[in-house]
C-alpha cells in the first residue's frame, strides 16, 4: 500500500481504461485533495475559490473572483509559449509566485520560462469550492494496492515473466516487440541521452497521523523537497485502523544514467533529439514503442493503458505485416 515510486492516484475520463483496470482489482472511491504550504500558510489545491479567498484575504463569490483574477491575468499573452506565460495568462503573478514558481523550480530544476506550457495545463483552475485535484469523472484507489493489480494482470496464461533479464540479452526472435523501456536506450543512446528528472524519497515512520492528509505540497523554494505523501491516507477505508504511518518527503533532481527515470523533461534540444530517435524508431520494423519511457511523454497511468489497448486493437495487422504501430503510434508533440 506504500507507493514506492511516489503517489499514484488512478483517475480517468476514458471508460475503456476504467473498465479494463477494474478487471484486476476492486477500486475504492477516492478523491485526491491536495494541500499546499506557501509562505507559512496552508491552502488547498488546485487553485480554487478557497485558495483565492484565503490568499487575498477576501470573501469573494465565484463571479467576483472570476473578475478579480481576470484583472490580474496577463491578457497580452494570447498563446502562452512556456509554463510561466501559461501561468501569468491564467492566474496572474501573485498566485503564480506563491504556488507554482518555487515548486516548479524544484521539480524541474529549470526556470519556468524554459518549460512547456503543457505541464501547467494538467491542473484545473476553479471558481468554486471544489478542491478535487482532478477533473476526471472516474477516480479511485486499488483496495489491495497496485502490486496486486499487476500480479493479477500477470496471471494470464499468455504472459511469461522473466526477471533479471535485460531486453538486450534476449536472443530469440519475436514476431513483434512492444518496447516500453526508454526509447534512447533501445538505440544504445547513439544520438545522446534524453533528459529525465528522478526522485529521491526520504521515509518518515511515525505513530498515528503524521500530517492529516495524503499529500501536502511545499511550494516555497527554500524548502528542499516538493511534497510529503502520507500513504495511509490514500486508503481512507482502512487508515483509521492503522496505529502507525509511513510518509515520504520527495526530492526531485536530474536523473543520472544509474537512476530510475521518472519525468521526461522535453526541453527544446531534447525535442530535436527525440525527433531523430523517432525517425530511427520508424525505420525499425516489427517494434512498436509504447508508454511513458517508450514515447518520452509525461503520461498518466490511464493514458498509458488507453494507448496500450489501442495497440491491442491493431495487433492482427501488426502481426500480419512486419511493421509497427503507425507513425510511432501517437504523435509525440
Ligand atoms: N505544480 C506547482 N505547484 C504545485 C503543484 C504542481 O508548481 O503545488 C506544477 C509543477 O510544475 C508540476 C506540475 O504543476 O510539475 C504538474 O503537477 P502534478 O501535480 O500533475 O505533478 P505530478 O503529481 O505528476 O508530479
The Cα radius of gyration reads 22 Å
Lateral strand order in the biggest sheet: 4-3-8-9-10-7-11
Q: Tell me which ligands are bound.
A: uridine-5'-diphosphate
Tell me roughly what share of residues is in helical segments. 25-40%
Largest sheet data: 7 strands, mixed
Task: Give the count of helical stretches.
Answer: 12
Number of DSSP E strands = 12
Quick check: average pLDDT? 93
Order of helices and strands: EHEEEHHHHEHEHEEEHEEHEHHH
Structural key phrases:
single chain, 333 residues, alpha+beta, seven-stranded mixed β-sheet, 12 strands, binds uridine-5'-diphosphate
Describe the structure.
This protein has 333 residues and is of the alpha+beta class. It has 12 helices and 12 strands. It has helices spanning 15-22, 49-56, 62-72, 83-108, 118-121, 146-154, 183-186, 236-239, 268-282, 291-294, 301-313, 315-320; strands at residues 10-12, 27-29, 34-38, 41-45, 138-142, 177-179, 196-207, 215-218, 227-230, 244-254, 263-264, 287-289. Strands 4-3-8-9-10-7-11 form a 7-stranded mixed β-sheet. It has a 3-stranded antiparallel β-sheet with strand order 1-5-2. The longest helix has 26 residues, at 83-108. It binds uridine-5'-diphosphate. Residues 36, 45, 99-100, 103-104, 107, 119-120, 122-123, 217, 219 line the site of uridine-5'-diphosphate (UDP). Uridine-5'-diphosphate binds at residues 36, 45, 99-100, 103-104, 107, 119-120, 122-123, 217, 219.
Amino acid at each position: 500500500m506504500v507507493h514506492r515510486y511516489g503517489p499514484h492516484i488512478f483517475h480517468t475520463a476514458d471508460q475503456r481504461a476504467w473498465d479494463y483496470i477494474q478487471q484486476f482489482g476492486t477500486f475504492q472511491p477516492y478523491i485526491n485533495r491536495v494541500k499546499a504550504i506557501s509562505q507559512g500558510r496552508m491552502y488547498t489545491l488546485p487553485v480554487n475559490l478557497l485558495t483565492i479567498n484565503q490568499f487575498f484575504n477576501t470573501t469573494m463569490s465565484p463571479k467576483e473572483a472570476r473578475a478579480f483574477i481576470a484583472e490580474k491575468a496577463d491578457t497580452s499573452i494570447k498563446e502562452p509559449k512556456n509554463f510561466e506565460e501559461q501561468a501569468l495568462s491564467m492566474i496572474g503573478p501573485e498566485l503564480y509566485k506563491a504556488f507554482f514558481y518555487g515548486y516548479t523550480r524544484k521539480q524541474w530544476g529549470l526556470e519556468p520560462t524554459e518549460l512547456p506550457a503543457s505541464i501547467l495545463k494538467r491542473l484545473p483552475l476553479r471558481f468554486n469550492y471544489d478542491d478535487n485535484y482532478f477533473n476526471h469523472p472516474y477516480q479511485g484507489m486499488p483496495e489491495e494496492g497496485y502490486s496486486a493489480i499487476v500480479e493479477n494482470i500477470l496471471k494470464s496464461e499468455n504472459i511469461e515473466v522473466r526477471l533479471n533479464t535485460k531486453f538486450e540479452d534476449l536472443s530469440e526472435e519475436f514476431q513483434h516487440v512492444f518496447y516500453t523501456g526508454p526509447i534512447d536506450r533501445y538505440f544504445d543512446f547513439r544520438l545522446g541521452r534524453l533528459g529525465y528528472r528522478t526522485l529521491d524519497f526520504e521515509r518518515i515512520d511515525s505513530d498515528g497521523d503524521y500530517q492529516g492528509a495524503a499529500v501536502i505540497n511545499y511550494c516555497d523554494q527554500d524548502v528542499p523537497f516538493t511534497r510529503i505523501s502520507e500513504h495511509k491516507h490514500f486508503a481512507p477505508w482502512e487508515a483509521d485502523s492503522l496505529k502507525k504511518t509511513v510518509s515520504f518527503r520527495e526530492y526531485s533532481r536530474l536523473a543520472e544514467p544509474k537512476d530510475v527515470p521518472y519525468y521526461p523533461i522535453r526541453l527544446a534540444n531534447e525535442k530535436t533529439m527525440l525527433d531523430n530517435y523517432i525517425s530511427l524508431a520508424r525505420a525499425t520494423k516489427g517494434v512498436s514503442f509504447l508508454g511513458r519511457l517508450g514515447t518520452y511523454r509525461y503520461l498518466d497511468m490511464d493514458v498509458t493503458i488507453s494507448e496500450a489497448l489501442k495497440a491491442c486493437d491493431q495487433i492482427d495487422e501488426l502481426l500480419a505485416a512486419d511493421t509497427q504501430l503507425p507513425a510511432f503510434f501517437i504523435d509525440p508533440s
